Structures are given as C-alpha cells and as structure tokens.
C-alpha cells in the first residue's frame, strides 16, 4: 500500500526569507493560487507577527485559498500564536506552525533558556495554538544539531499537548543523508507516542543536501516534506519541491509513498515564482531548468529518437513542459485576454486593472507577433505592481553609437509630478540608471543586474532583474519589455518603488 506524502510548501514564508525575495500581498495570492492548482496540501503563507503587511498577506491568502490548508508561522509565544490565529480565521482549513530552538547552542546563546524552560514553553505554545485550531505543527528548531534524548522529551511532550505534526528542521543544512534518515528512524522508534503525529522534515541546502536529506528521511518514515518552488529560501535555500516530488514519483520502486500533486503545474509554478521574486532559474536546474530535458549530444539525440527511455527518466510534459501556448496577437480582444488569464488562474478584481493589462497587452502585441503565457505572466506582474508605484516611467530615449558615449534622457512621474533628466553612462543601461538616480537620489547600491529572455527569438521580451540595497534592506526589481534598455529602466524603478514600500519586518528566527 502506498502512503500519502504530504507536501508543505513554504515558498511564501521561508522562500520569502531569501534576500530581496519579499513579495506583495497580491503576488503572494498569485503564487498561492498556483500552488493550490498544483494540489499542494499545505501552504505556509507567512509569519503574521512580522509586520502588519505580513499579517494582511497571510489573511488574504487564507481568505482566497479553498483547497489547500493555509498555515501561519509563530514563535512559541502567545502574541505570535494569537496573531497567527487571527490571520487564519477566514481559512477553509488552517494550521498554526509554532517552533522553538532545541539545540544546545541555540538554547544557551540565542534563547538563554534551560532545556526544561524550553520544554515548558513548547508545551504552552502548542496548547495555546490548539485554542485556535486542531491542526498544530511543532518544530524543534535546529533539530539537526540537537541531542537525541532531549529531542525525544520535547516531542513526546508536545504530542501530548496536542501537536499533530512534528517537523524536524535541519535549520543550518548541517546533516548528511544517512545521518538525517537515522535521526528520523530513531525518533519514530524511541518516542512512545510517535504514532499520534505525522513526522515532517524541513531541510536547508547549505551543503547542497536539502533534497537528499529530505528523501532519506522519507525512506525512514517521514510523511511530510517542507519545500519551496525552485528551492528558494533562507541562505542557500530549502529543498526544492519539484525535485522532491519528482524523485518520489519517478522512483516508486524505492518509495512506499507518493504525493497527490498535479505535477504538470510544476513548470508554470516555477516560472511564476522566478518572475515574481526575481530569482531566475539556472538552465541546468533539475526538472525546471531550460536544459533539463534538452539533449545536446548526437548520441543522446539519436537514442531518444529511437526510444525516449534510453536517456529520459521522466516525460517533459508530466512536469508541465508543454507548448507555451501562442495565445493572442494584436487582433485579440479584451475578452480573449481575460479568458486566457483565467485559464492561468489570474483574475483581476477590478475592471480598471483588466483595462490596464489590456492596454499594456496591445502595446506589446504591436511590437511582438506572438504572445505567450510567460509574456502574460510578466504583464500581470507589471500591472499589479503599477498600482503601488510612487515612481513611474513616462518616457525614455537613449542614444548609443560606436565611438560615442551613450546618453539617456527620460521623464518620470514621481508622486504625481513630472520630472526629467539626462545622463551619460558607460552604456545605455548605465546612462538610464544614472538619469533615474539624478532625479530620485536613492543612493541605493546596485547589487545585481541580470537579463533573461522570457521566450525565445529576437523579438522576445527581455526580463531584467535589478537588486538594490539601501540601509540593510535588499529588494529585487523586475521589468520586461522587447527593448532591454526600457526593461532595465522599469526594473530599476520597480526596485526603487519596493524600497519605498519596504517596511521593517521581524525575522522569525532572530
Ligand atoms: O529552518 C527552520 O528551522 C525554520 C523553522 C521555522 C521551521 O524555518
Ligand atoms: Zn527554514
């Protein structure tokens, strides 16, 4: 008999802890909808106590998701738990995830608490969370470096207090697969009431072992894996959802469990998350990288033509590498756009937003013959972020010629007032950024500039990511256009807008 492997996605919480990956409420809802379509069991939507914006985002996800359980993170503190309970009130199905550190170094140096105090606080937190929902998850943070006997004591006590999921985090990505698997085995064996809870794992990728550690734990009886789309997450990230899910699905000869995910939604989800967060996917990334199913060598191509199983262990279409529909062109109307967006799970709340998206669509269709789903996703991102913009690009002109210093002249709308500037630079993009800076004076430091094409062909839109840092805050800006200098200016402006909006947030693990 095959057990169910529960998939707990934390892209919106741990994924958002990647520097610069913070998402707006609308962006979180868009990602949550994609996860729901994929049939993810649990969506961790955020850390409600972190800021009013985080609270509102978790609430909005809880209110709009119907088929997945929505989870909120809370430290083992009454105020965190009550805030999470409040944010999740509107959910069809909710979970509170509470945690406290259990490793000697965290208890002594970070918490300054004795092991007995930690157990007491953990039990009190689970009881408090049970006042809000029956579905409570407890994590002993840094379990991967905790002492086994102490872990067993804490876990036995929190199961008695009402936790139905016990999540074992390798918080610092320190474990090695056989050792982590053994840890799960030992916990299941030694804890007298372990059969009263589902055991889960949450692995970080500091040594590149997050997926391997998660799978090793599944082989030893873990039945929930916490993971993120594209492996996003704190530092080197979390276990990548697509890799865990496809490893288990592909190797049913090895695993006695399987998830119930619709894997054809994996590639679309990966694209949406990459587009929103500004973390592009490397081409050789397993499952979702552009080369994951591309065969370069003649021998491989020949083999695949004769029988695809010679070199392919999965079907590209099973993970969503289907035709990226050519959907619309310059003669398509507003209803055609609306209906395709609906197929992609995107519905604008107001007619005004749809009209703005349609205007942008028409502009794009004038420059580009065929408009693909990925173009539409970029267009939606821009339409949604445009609503919150303090700074808008009105027009941009660049002059670039061999032997001459490039020059950019532009007009911006800053809080409703039109401003203009010109600047020279080492290239047209540099000139445009300098012209923007001469108006805005943000003094933000440019940490990353990258251009990717959204679809193929020379008329493809360039998708530009700009990462800016200003007083310890890091944001990623996104901009797309068939003209990459315009895309770059949009991306820079998008990052500046995010810096203006960024509010101070508490980090769950500090
Ligand atoms: O990595 C970690 O320990 C976490 C916990 C909050 C589960 O993210
Ligand atoms: Zn984590």
So how many helices?
Answer: 16
Which ligands occur here? 3-methyl-2-oxobutanoic acid, zinc ion
Report Rg: 24 Å
Flag low-confidence runs: none
How many domains? The number is 4
Task: Quickly describe the structure.
The protein is an alpha/beta fold and 510 residues long.
What would you note in describing this structure?
This protein folds into four domains: 3-277, TIM Barrel, CATH 3.20.20.70; 292-320, no CATH class; 326-385, no CATH class; 389-501, Double Stranded RNA Binding Domain. The protein contains 16 helices and 18 strands. The protein is an alpha/beta fold. A hairpin with a 2-residue loop joins strand 17 and strand 18. The chain starts with a strand and ends in a 9-residue tail after the last helix. Helix 2 (52-64) crosses helix 3 (78-87), helix 8 (210-219) crosses helix 9 and helix 10 packs parallel to helix 14. The protein is 39% helix and 21% strand. The strands form five sheets. An eight-stranded parallel β-barrel has the order 2-3-4-5-6-7-8-9, surrounded by nine helices. The structure holds 3-methyl-2-oxobutanoic acid (KIV) and zinc ion.
